[in-house]
Amino acid sequence: MTLSISPDINSVAQLVSSISTQQQPTVTEAEMVQAVRTLLIGLGENPDREGLKDTPKRVVKALQFLTKGYDESLDELLNGAVFKEDANEMVLIRDIDIFSSCEHHILPIIGRAHVAYIPNGKVIGLSKIARICEMYARRLQVQERLTVQIADALQGLLKPQGVAVVIEATHMCMVMRGVQKPGSWTVTSAMRGVFAEDGRTREEFMNLIRHSANFH
Ligand SMILES: Nc1nc2c(ncn2[C@@H]2O[C@H](COP(=O)(O)OP(=O)(O)OP(=O)(O)O)[C@@H](O)[C@H]2O)c(=O)[nH]1
Ligand SMILES: [Zn+2]
C-alpha cells in the first residue's frame, strides 16, 4: 500500500503568518488529526493499521489536555478566592506536582514546585496557588519562564511582601533522547520582594523546602 503525504503549502503558510501576527490561528480538529497522521506516515508507520487507527485523534486530545493552560485565565481560576487577612508570616506550599511540556521538543518536564509568599493584607485560597502552577505548566514552556510566571502572577495578585518559587524538574528531552542524562535535575528559582532583598528570609524558605514533612 502506498501512503502519500500532501501538505497544503498555502494553508501552512497562512497558518504560520496568522501565528506571527498574533491572531488566533484557525485550525480545525480534523486538520490537527491529519497532521498527526502525516507524522505517523513520516515515521514509517501505517496509520490505518488496527492499533493506530484512532491514534491521531488520541494524540490531538492528549496534546490539547497538556496545553489546556492556554485557555485558562487567572481571573477564572481564582474565582474570587483572595481574602483580606492581617497575616504577616510566610505561607509555603511545597511539593506541588508539575507536569509541563518543553517548548523545544514537546516532551514532558516532570517535577515539583515550592511556592511561598509573605502576605501584606491579603491571602489567597491555598488551592489557587496549585491551580496557578497548573495553568502555566499546561503550556509549552521552558522551566525558567514557568518559574517566573508563577512568581509574577502571585506578586501581581496579592502585592505581598514577597514571593519565592523554586521548581525542581527533570526534562525528558534530556533523559530519553539527546544528551540522555537520566537522574539530572534542573532547579530554577524566582524571588520577589523580601525574598530577593533579605538573605535571612530566603534562607528560611530554603530550609523549609529542604526538610521532609514528618507525616510522610
Ligand atoms: N533553558 C532551558 N532549556 C531547555 C529547557 N527544556 C529544554 N531545553 C534545552 O533546549 C535546547 C535546545 O537546543 P538545540 O540544540 O536547538 O536542540 P537539540 O539539538 O534537540 O539539543 P539537544 O537536546 O542537546 O540534543 C537543549 O539544550 C535543551 O536541553 C528549559 O526548560 N530551559
Ligand atoms: Zn526539550
Automatic annotation (TrEMBL):
Gene3D superfamilies the record matches: 1.10.286.10, 3.30.1130.10
Coiled coil: none
Residues where Zn(2+) binds: 102, 105, 173
Keywords assigned by UniProt, alphabetized: GTP-binding, Hydrolase, Metal-binding, Nucleotide-binding, One-carbon metabolism, Zinc
Keyword GTP-binding assigned: yes
Signal peptide per UniProt: none
Documented EC number(s): 3.5.4.16
SUPFAM superfamilies for the chain: Tetrahydrobiopterin biosynthesis enzymes-like
Protein name as catalogued: GTP cyclohydrolase 1
Record InterPro entries: GTP-CH-I_C/QueF, GTP-CH-I_N, GTP_CycHdrlase_I, GTP_CycHdrlase_I_CS, GTP_CycHdrlase_I_dom
Pathway linked to the protein: Cofactor biosynthesis; 7,8-dihydroneopterin triphosphate biosynthesis; 7,8-dihydroneopterin triphosphate from GTP: step 1/1
One Gene Ontology term of the molecular function aspect: GTP cyclohydrolase I activity
Protein family (similarity comment): Belongs to the GTP cyclohydrolase I family.
